[in-house]
Fold each of these.
Amino acid sequence: MKLLVMSHAADRTGAPRSALLLAQEWVRLGLDVRILLRRDGVLRPDFEAVAPTEIYRADPAFGVRDFGAMTREGDAVLALKCLRNPGRPYCRSASERHHVNTLADQYRDWGADAIYANTSHCADMIEQIGLSLPVLTHVREMAPSLLALDARRRQHLIAGDGPVLAVSERGRSDLVEIGVAAARIAIEPPAAAVPDRAGLDAQRTDVERELGLLPGDRLIASAGTVGPRKGADLFINAVQHVLERSTGPERIVAVWLGEGAWLEACRARVAAAGLAGRILFPGAVADVTPVLRRAELLLCCSREDPYPRVLIEAALTGAPSIAFAGTGGAEEFIAEFDAGWLVPAFDIGAMAAQVGAALAARQGPDEALAGRVASERSVQKSAARLLGHLQDLVGGTHGAITHS
């Protein structure tokens, strides 16, 4: 099978990392894969190492001539928006149109069989590449993000007749809520690479040195984009409560791995509270798993998240999670795999109390948890299930989807 894999970015967030792992596994399984990314990023070399990779919009540009051409085509409102923000979807300059047409010709000559769209944000790429191929769309967003999509991409998702995969039951409900036919939707949660836990243990001293930890420190971790949706402020609040309540001899340290708009503000807030050595924001790291293996717990403070991939990564290292109930797929993951604890949504006191109870009750990785999650949430298992959907598509049975 010749498969075109589309993703919206090449950054280190969950969706592009999922696309990269799936592409690696499909190549290993013998598929002929090519990759199209909306925008560039730090993971581009990793994608290029897997399969031929192109950037859809390397340098968004939209000038007065482009404004005139789009206006003559009958979309003056969008043309004006494009002048103000050339990076918007569908705002292509003449040179970008030429680039997309060249890509489309390349993919036709190659003989692509199907498209795997890694998020709902790929809709404009699908439309404008114009290959008329069967598409499997993997929606990794919940209702707030889906409703925030520009109307044209949202309508592309709703009006299509191809299969759609949600990452959780909550995600499925949100898709139905915005108008996607229930018969088109199945569920395929995110997946992660199963780490070599013994190899991670060998990195323990390196992790401690990089984070300034002592061997006996109890480490709490989190990871993701440092911003409001992932709840970086709630993480700081919860850890402050934990530190205030801690009376034991062991030192508790917390670390958030990732970058984002709130990174410097979070660092400043922690420093102002005199906790710069106890609540760490080191920024993005290439591989979070050595830190997660060293951690006792993962705190998931997301305000909404269809299925936080970092919970899977943490569990695969043996670290259980504490998350807010009712915020998305975390609840489903923790219940399915007995992977930690849920506390009432945004109840910082309850989260801090659960951290204290968990630290008092256990120490060291939960190897049984790692085994349970590896049995279902490995990238190998997920890629195989997705390949089954893709084979059905190419075989012509894509009007509806077999529910999982």
Note: The two ends are 23 Å apart (CA to CA).
Amino acid sequence: MSEIRVNDVSLYYEEHGAGEPIVCIHGTGSSAAFWADALDELAKHGRATAYDRRGCFRSERPEPYVTNVHQQADDAAALIDALDAAPAIVIGRSYGGEIAVDLALRYPGRVRALALLEGGAFSMSESFMRWDAELKQQVFAAAEVDMSTVAETFLRAVLGDAAWEGFPEPAKRMFTGNGPAIVAELRGGLLDVSAGELGTIVQPTLLVAGKDSAPAFVEMTNLMAMAMPSARVEWAEGGHLINPAHAAVLGFVDEVLALKEEPSTA
């Protein structure tokens, strides 16, 4: 468990296991702490690194805090370079999947393969864009009244009431503390990516979607699958909060590691 300074911000990170690099990127409001059990499993397959993204939990949050997907991907690329972890199998959940896609598009040499857990190209789905607009209205209204209510408002909308109620108190405190990061990421907007751009990603890609997720997430996954010749889809039980150590993900990691690594460009 360490801190590293990249792009003028201090990031908390931790590494588990040894071998080929696996880099994990969490979603909005979360942190590496929420991936603890998954990291233990991933560490059996390689050198698994997770970090708290800029503005989240144990990492630095500049003030005033503004951010976007491109900045977060720049951080991910710099972290991979600093840790000598290129090219990495990159696992991104939700907003972390958007960051992973942007990383593959703008820093292809850092990415060996992608595992996207209901994340990556939300802007391609008209249903998601409508849902996202309503979500932002709720979250921004909560922020104006009391920033400490932002995380609960956001997670109840995204995951459902039962999921929020089921989180242990330490997790709720972590999410609540990330309220300003949630607002900043929503204000920063979605990754604007086209089907044509997705089609240029040649790295092996796994799309994992929840069988019980909202239709907007399902539509986004299907659109991405059609756009990416390198991608395949696995449907997991449950909703949006997909386990990064799902059997499909672990199997995919092993498949990628068994492939002969091809030289990549920049």
Note: The CA atoms of residues 98 and 120 lie 4 Å apart.
